[in-house]
C-alpha cells in the first residue's frame, strides 16, 4: 500500500508523536482490506470510554463518515473525505464551528483520523481527465481501517463488562433481600444476638457502594454481603437445631409417660369422677410479654417520637415510655387501650407500638382502633413488632439515599 510521505498539519497546529504513529500504522493495512463503516462506528460508540473520545466527538465522526460515498471503507475507493467546516457543521446537527474544530482535534489526537492538509489548509480534491479522483486533501479515514480489529475487540470487552456488572448487581439485589428477610425472621423468632448491630453492618456495607460503581466495587460489596448472609444463616441454623432438639426431648418424655402399663389414670377414673367423664379443660395460659427490641433500633426506625421525650430527646426506656404517653394523648388513644397494650405486649413494646403509629402518620385513620387491633393479635400470638420496625428502617434508609 502506498500512503505517501508523512504529512504535517497546516498553520500553527503542532505535529505530535501520536499523529506520526497514527500515520505509520496505516502502512500495515492491506490493499484489499475493507470495513463496514457503520458497523465500525457502532463499535466505536461502545468502546468510546476506552478510546478516550466523547459522544460529541463521535457525532462529528458520524458526520464525516456520511461524506464517504461507499458503505465499506477501502483503499481502492480512497479514504480521504474533504467537506468544508460549513458542510460538516450542517451534518453535525448545526454544531458551531469552534466546537467542531475542537472535537476534530480530539479525533486526531485519539488516532482515529489523520489530517492531510493542502498547502493553504483548504480541503478539496483534484480529478484527472476522466473524472477519477487523483488527489484529495482533508481527513484520512485510514486509521479506522488499520485499527478496526482493535476497536471491535475493545467494544466486545465493554459489552462483556456491562453484562458481568448486570449479573453482579442482580446477585447483590438477591443477597440484600436475603439479609433483610433473615434479620426480620431472627427478630420475629427472638433469636439471641445483637441484631441491631447486624442491621447497622448491613447498612454500612450498602453505604460504601458508590452510585456509579464498577465491576470491582460491586464484586467487593457482594462478597461482604454474602459473608453477612452466611453469618446470619449460621445463627438461625443453630437456633433451629436447639429448638428441634428441645422439641424432640419434650415429645420423648410425653411418650414415655403415656406408655407406662401400670398407669392408674388409664386403668380407672380419677376420684370424684364417673367412668367415661370428660377431663377438665386446661386453664387458658396468658401470653408471655414480648421481648423488647433495642432502643437504638426503635429510635432509628421511628425518629419522630424523640421530639416528645423529656427535653426533646430520648436516652432511655423511661424517656421512651414518657414520650409514648404524650403521643397516646395527642393521637386520641384512650388510657384503657394503652393500658391493655402494656399488659399484653409489655410497657416497652407498647411504647414502641405508639412510636410506629406516630411514624406512619396519615396512613392510620384511628390510632386507638389500630392499637387495639395490634393488642388482640399479640394476645393470640399473631403479631410481632419486628416486620413493622424493619419496614420503617427500610423506608428511612431509602429516604436517606434519595436525599444524598
UniProtKB/TrEMBL annotation:
Cross-referenced InterPro entries: RepABC_RepC, RepC_C, RepC_N, WH-like_DNA-bd_sf
Q: Where is the Plasmid replication protein C N-terminal domain?
A: 13-186
Q: Name one Pfam family in it.
A: RP-C_C
The annotated regions of Basic and acidic residues compositional bias extend over 275-289
- Residue ranges for the region (Disordered) are 246-291
**In this protein, which residues make up the domain named Plasmid replication protein C C-terminal?**
294-394
TM region(s), chain numbering: none
**Protein's UniProt name:** Replication initiation protein RepC
The species this protein was found in: Pseudorhizobium halotolerans
